[in-house]
C-alpha cells in the first residue's frame, strides 16, 4: 500500500518588505540602470518624515550612482515637511508625494522633464509651488485628464518653463483647485500658457503676462471671479490668443465673454503689444476683451494695431497714442463718451456704437480736425474737438490693496477696506490709497 505524505507549512507571520535595493542616510533607493549608473528614491520599510534632502549622487558597492527620479508612491502618505530635489532629478513618478499633508513648499528643478499623475495631490498644506526657470518643456503625464495638484491649496506659483499637458474640460484647471491662489509670477523662458491653466483661480486679483509670452490658449483664465487687472507687458512680437468658440455679439443680445477671460470681471487692462487672435473651431475672432466690464485701457508704445473692445459697456474713455495705426472696433461700447486720438493722420478704424457717435466727443490734434471730419468712420462723430481741450483723469490703483478708507473730511470709515468693499459704500466722496473716489 502506498502511503501519501502531506506536508503542511505553518506560516507564523509574514514580513512585508519593500522592494528597494539599498538604504543610505534614511533614504531608500532602487537601481534603475546598471549600465549608466542611475537610481531612484523609493519607498522603504519606514515612513519618511521631517526635512528631506535628496542628493545628486550616492555611492553603493563602490559605484557612484546619479539620483535621477522618484519612484511611484515613494513618499505617499508620509510625514515629510519639506523636500529638496537635486538638479540630477529628471522625473517624478505617479503618486510620488500623494497625501503628504505636512508638505508646505515644493521647488521643481529645471532638470525635471516629466511629472506623473497625482504626484502632488492631497497635499493639504502645500501653499507654494516654484517651477524653476528652464528652456526645456515640463511634461505633465497625459495618461489621465485629471488636473494636477488637486486638493493642494497653492497660494503662490512661480512658472519658469513651458508646460505640456492636456486638460479636456473647461471645468478643470491644469493645477486643480486654485481657489487660494493670490500670486502668479511668470518667468522669462515661458512662451505659452496652456488651455485652462489658471481657470478657477477665484482669489487672483491681478496678472502680468511678460513680453516673452507668444500664445495664450483658450480658457486660460476662465472663472477667475476676482481678477480685475491684466497687464500684457511691452513686447515686439504679437501675442496669439486662442479662443474655443465665437464670442457673443451685440446684435444677438449676448452679454457673456467666451474667450480666455470667461466669467472673469476684468476692469483694467494694459496692452503693450499687438494681438493675433484665432479660434480653434471658427474663423479668427477679436474677442479677447468682448463684453468684459472694462473701465480703463492703457495702450503702450509698441502697439500699432489695437484689438477689439466690442461690448465693453462700462468703458467711458479711451486714449489712443499716435503709434496706433489700426483700430479694430468699439461696437457696443454704449457708455463710451470720450475718445482721444493723438495721431495726426486718422487711423484705420472699425465702428463705434451709435451712442458714442451721438453723445460722445472725439478729441484730435487741432490741425487734423478737418481731416477726421472727412474720414470714415471718424466723420460719424457729431462732436469733434481740439485735443488740447481733452480732460481725462484715469485713476491707477492696486486692486489687491486692503487698507483704511476715509471720508472727505478725513474720518476713518473702515481700517480694512478692499476694492469690493469700496464699491458697496453709499454715494459720496471717499479717500482710499491716497486717491479720491466718487461713488455715484
Reconstruct the topology from this structure.
Blueprint: E1 22-24, E2 27-33, E3 38-42, E4 49-53, E5 57-60, E6 63-70, E7 79-84, E8 91-92, E9 105-108, E10 114-115, E11 128-131, E12 138-140, E13 156-159, E14 163-164, E15 183-186, E16 192-193, E17 206-209, E18 215-216, E19 229-232, E20 239-243, E21 268-271, E22 275-279, E23 296-299, E24 305-306, E25 317-320, E26 326-327, E27 338-341, E28 348-349, H1 354-359, E29 361-364, H2 369-373, E30 384-386, E31 403-407, E32 412-417, H3 419-423, E33 428-432, E34 435-439
Parallel strand pairs: 3-6, 4-7, 6-8, 8-10, 9-11, 10-12, 11-13, 12-14, 13-15, 16-18, 17-19, 18-20, 19-21, 20-22, 21-23, 24-26, 25-27, 26-28, 27-29, 29-30
Antiparallel strand pairs: 1-2, 2-3, 5-6, 31-32, 31-33, 33-34
What would you say about this model in short?
The chain is mainly β. It has helices at 354-359, 369-373, 419-423, and strands spanning 22-24, 27-33, 38-42, 49-53, 57-60, 63-70, 79-84, 91-92, 105-108, 114-115, 128-131, 138-140, 156-159, 163-164, 183-186, 192-193, 206-209, 215-216, 229-232, 239-243, 268-271, 275-279, 296-299, 305-306, 317-320, 326-327, 338-341, 348-349, 361-364, 384-386, 403-407, 412-417, 428-432, 435-439. Strands 1, 2, 3, 5, 6, 8, 10, 12 and 14 form a 9-stranded mixed sheet that branches. The chain has a 4-stranded parallel sheet with strand order 9-11-13-15, with no helix packed on it. It has a 4-stranded parallel sheet with strand order 16-18-20-22, with no helix packed on it.
Amino acid at each position: 500500500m502506498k502511503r501519501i505524505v502531506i506536508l503542511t507549512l505553518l506560516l507564523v507571520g509574514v514580513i512585508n518588505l519593500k522592494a528597494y535595493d539599498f538604504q543610505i542616510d534614511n533614504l531608500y533607493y532602487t537601481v534603475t540602470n546598471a549600465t549608466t549608473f542611475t537610481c531612484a528614491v523609493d519607498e522603504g520599510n519606514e515612513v519618511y518624515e521631517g526635512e528631506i534632502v535628496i542628493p545628486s549622487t550616492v555611492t553603493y558597492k563602490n559605484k557612484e550612482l546619479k539620483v535621477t527620479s522618484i519612484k511611484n508612491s515613494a513618499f505617499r502618505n508620509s510625514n515629510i515637511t519639506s523636500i529638496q530635489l537635486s538638479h540630477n532629478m529628471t522625473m517624478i513618478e505617479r503618486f510620488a508625494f500623494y497625501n503628504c499633508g505636512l508638505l508646505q513648499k515644493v521647488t521643481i528643478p529645471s532638470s525635471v522633464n516629466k511629472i506623473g499623475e497625482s504626484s502632488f495631490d492631497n497635499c493639504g498644506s502645500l501653499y507654494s509651488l516654484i517651477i524653476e526657470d528652464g528652456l526645456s518643456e515640463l511634461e505633465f503625464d497625459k495618461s489621465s485628464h485629471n488636473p494636477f495638484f488637486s486638493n493642494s491649496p497653492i497660494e503662490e506659483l512661480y512658472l519658469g518653463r513651458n508646460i505640456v499637458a492636456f486638460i479636456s474640460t473647461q471645468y478643470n484647471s491644469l493645477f486643480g483647485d486654485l481657489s487660494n491662489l493670490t500670486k502668479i509670477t511668470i518667468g522669462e523662458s515661458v512662451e505659452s500658457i496652456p488651455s485652462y491653466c489658471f481657470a478657477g483661480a477665484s482669489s487672483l486679483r491681478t496678472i502680468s503676462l511678460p513680453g516673452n509670452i507668444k500664445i495664450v490658449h483658450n480658457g486660460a483664465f476662465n472663472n477667475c471671479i476676482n481678477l480685475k487687472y491684466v497687464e500684457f507687458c511691452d513686447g515686439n512680437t504679437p501675442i496669439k490668443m486662442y479662443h474655443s468658440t465665437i464670442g457673443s455679439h451685440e446684435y444677438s443680445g449676448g452679454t457673456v465673454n467666451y474667450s480666455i477671460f470667461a466669467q472673469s470681471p476684468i476692469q483694467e487692462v494694459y496692452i503693450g503689444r499687438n494681438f493675433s487672435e484665432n479660434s480653434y473651431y471658427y474663423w479668427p475672432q477679436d474677442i479677447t476683451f468682448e463684453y468684459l466690464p472694462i473701465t480703463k485701457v492703457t495702450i503702450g508704445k509698441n502697439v500699432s494695431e489695437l484689438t477689439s473692445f466690442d461690448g465693453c459697456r462700462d468703458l467711458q474713455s479711451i486714449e489712443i497714442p499716435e503709434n496706433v495705426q489700426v483700430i479694430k472696433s468699439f461696437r457696443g461700447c454704449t457708455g463710451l463718451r470720450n475718445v482721444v486720438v493723438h495721431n495726426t493722420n486718422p487711423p484705420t478704424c472699425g465702428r463705434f456704437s451709435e451712442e458714442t457717435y451721438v453723445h460722445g466727443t472725439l478729441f484730435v490734434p487741432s490741425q487734423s480736425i478737418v481731416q477726421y471730419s472727412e474720414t470714415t468712420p471718424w466723420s460719424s462723430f457729431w462732436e469733434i474737438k481740439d485735443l488740447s481741450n481733452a480732460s481725462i483723469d484715469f485713476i491707477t490703483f492696486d486692486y489687491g490693496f486692503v487698507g483704511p478708507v476715509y471720508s472727505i473730511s478725513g474720518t476713518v470709515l473702515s481700517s480694512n477696506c478692499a476694492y469690493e468693499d469700496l464699491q458697496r459704500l453709499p454715494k459720496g466722496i471717499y479717500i482710499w490709497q491716497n486717491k479720491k473716489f466718487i461713488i455715484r
